[in-house]
Design brief:
Structural class: mainly alpha
Shape: globular
Largest sheet: 2 strands, antiparallel
Distance between the termini: 29 Å
Number of helices: 26
Strand order of the largest sheet: 1-2
């Protein structure tokens, strides 16, 4: 079972500079005021206004800048990745992140067979993404298991990501244009209860494969994705019973936003709903599942839009009206481009966009977006190579999402989550789902589980944005997760036991021995790779003395211990000594509030 601790034990583990009897992380990040937000005098208070813009970054390129780039574009990073980025230089590092060949990972499989037989007779370990239940009478249990497996598969994609932006960008699209796996599964539509996992997989696969693609094409494709048809109920939208749900959200959330320049009206929503009538998923019990146009369900009247859309009319021409509607939305190029650039900025940089950042970053970035015909990649290339992105004011200011914390920590500390028997799919999927259910769900973020169509509050909800990740419950559970992976725990599934634990000795051995043997250099390097901002010499000395020196003052107290271990690693006493001290050091660093930042 995961390691748990009471509040007294948790507070004792915090570094001595936090001697208060309150939860220091909660105190640092919780909302002080709901309106006209005020921070405590914490490390995440960004200097304002930040005047840097999109001019090319020409400053220093060190481990600090490389790690900052990786933290914001990956779920954590391995030391080897950061070192490689330092050697590449900024331009080549960004190019590597953004230029990659689309590959399709191994699909989710039947892992549930030992616990519940597949109701279609699909073999254990087989790909279910094309396996169809043709009758609604069976398949509900299997579909529920497949849905759970899809969430585990999504977790594994982040955990085993390549050195590019694909998985982080897939999260951006998922939070921005989301579906909830369970909402789709339990909808009242025919065959959803037995086939929803397949179309949710197709939805996730589409965004992953097009994560840096053309935004206009993404919106057009998303409008008829079967999973979205069910999630926002356009499946029920017809001339005799118009449903405004998708019509409203495609404008309010996915393209135009609610910023002052976005002046579409309720009547525009009504007219858009008419445009969108007649699209139907009619073959959910077949593969491939597609959305087609049904002329008998379509409102063929002329649709007239408001002055915001220049009183555009869309005639009752049938299926082509959807394309005309998308064209009309994107004719508002300034509104659409600035809205999307704000969403990208808040996901990759910081939530606070004042007038200076609007003028120096958002407006010119939006112009890049339009000039490149709505392609996402040039926008990110410009942002990630800019002075503003690497501005010191942006570093250590952004609270990690739960996925960044959990997946990032597992990757950063090279924790092995791959089971020893590759054919034991049941054990492997349950390991992945254990992280979803026991660690991510309690801190309020799991792929496939979304609060509402707006996504997770932390990415969009004014005025607090990322502060929503932090409350008195999630704070303690964040600390508890980190304690769990350092103290270690064993999971046994389907007869196979897997140990989840940071190998602290192996982790520090990534550094040259001349660094590890010197406690000052070792603490300094650990801070560089684990924290987004540096610590004072005083704090570093405290970390060194309390952990590596076991409250002694002579550096030799660590140097001798490490030298003894290196000379005879099979000696259990030597090994235990260095392991205990390293575990104390690394756990203490991760229990600092700074570790919760990017």
């Amino acid at each position: 079972m995961p390691h748990t601790m009471n509040r007294r034990s948790l507070l004792k583990m915090l570094v001595s500079r936090n001697a208060n009897t309150v939860d220091p992380l909660f105190e640092k990040y919780r909302r002080k005021k709901f309106f006209n937000r005020k921070y405590s005098a914490g490390i995440n208070a960004r200097t304002s206004p930040v005047s840097s813009g999109l001019a090319a970054y020409t400053g220093a390129w060190t481990i600090n800048e490389a790690a900052y780039l990786l933290r914001h574009t990956q779920f954590g990073f391995k030391k080897s990745d950061a070192d490689a980025f330092v050697n590449l230089g900024m331009n080549a590092a960004v190019d590597l992140l953004l230029n990659f060949t689309n590959t399709t990972p191994s699909p989710p499989v039947n892992y549930y067979q030992p616990d519940a037989a597949d109701e279609n007779g699909l073999a254990y370990g087989s790909d279910w993404t094309q396996n169809v239940f043709t009758s609604g009478a069976i398949g509900g249990t299997t579909n529920t298991n497949r849905t759970r497996g899809l969430a585990a598969w999504c977790f594994a994609l982040g955990l085993n990501q390549d050195l590019n932006i694909r998985e982080k960008m897939s999260l951006f699209w998922y939070h921005f244009i989301p579906i909830d796996f369970t909402v789709v599964r339990i909808s009242q539509n025919s065959y959803c209860g037995s086939n929803s996992a397949r179309i949710c997989y197709d939805y996730m696969k589409y965004f992953r494969e097009n994560c840096l693609g053309n935004f206009k094409s993404i919106i057009r494709n998303m409008a008829t994705q079967p999973a979205m048809m069910y999630y926002l109920n356009n499946q029920a939208n017809s001339k005799n019973a118009p449903d405004e749900n998708f019509a409203r959200e495609v404008m309010e959330l996915f393209t135009l936003g609610k910023d002052p320049l976005s002046e579409y009206t309720q009547e525009d929503v009504v007219q858009a709903a008419k445009v969108l009538t007649g699209w139907r998923v009619k073959n959910l019990n077949a593969y491939p599942t597609t959305t087609t146009y049904d002329d008998t369900l379509h409102d063929k009247t002329t649709k007239t839009f408001s002055s915001f859309f220049n009183n555009t009319t869309i005639n009752g021409t049938g299926a082509n009206e959807l394309d005309a509607f998308v064209d009309m939305i994107f004719s508002k190029s300034v509104v659409v481009s600035e809205y999307i650039c704000r969403r990208l900025y808040r996901f990759f940089v910081y939530y606070d966009i004042d007038a200076t950042i609007e003028a120096n970053v958002i407006t010119p970035l939006a112009q890049v977006f339009v000039a490149n015909n709505w392609n996402i990649q040039p926008v990110l290339d410009t942002l990630f190579k800019s002075q503003h992105f690497y501005d010191m004011a942006n570093r250590g200011a952004y609270i990690k999402s739960p996925l960044d914390l959990v997946i990032g920590s597992l990757r950063t500390f090279n924790i092995n989550t791959t089971i020893s028997d590759a054919t034991n799919y049941n054990a492997q999927y349950k390991i992945w789902n254990d992280f979803n259910s026991n660690f991510l769900l309690p801190i309020e973020q799991v792929m496939g589980t979304i609060p509402n169509v707006s996504g997770w509050n932390a990415f969009y909800q004014k005025p607090s944005f990322h502060e929503y990740w932090i409350n008195s419950t999630t704070t303690q559970k964040r600390f508890s997760f980190l304690s769990s992976i350092f103290n270690g725990y064993t999971k046994t599934f389907n007869g196979l036991s897997t140990r989840i634990e940071v190998d602290v000795i192996a982790w520090v051995k990534q550094f040259p021995n001349e660094v590890v043997i010197d406690p000052d250099l070792l603490v300094d390097q650990c801070v560089k790779y684990l924290l987004p901002i540096d610590l004072s010499t005083t704090v570093k000395n405290t970390l060194k003395m309390q952990n590596l020196l076991s409250n002694q003052t002579d550096n030799n107290y660590w140097t001798v211990a490490w030298s003894n271990y290196i000379s005879n690693p099979s000696n259990t006493t030597y090994t235990s000594t260095v392991k205990t001290r390293l575990k104390s050091l690394l756990l203490t660093i991760t229990q600092l509030a700074e570790y919760q930042l990017m």
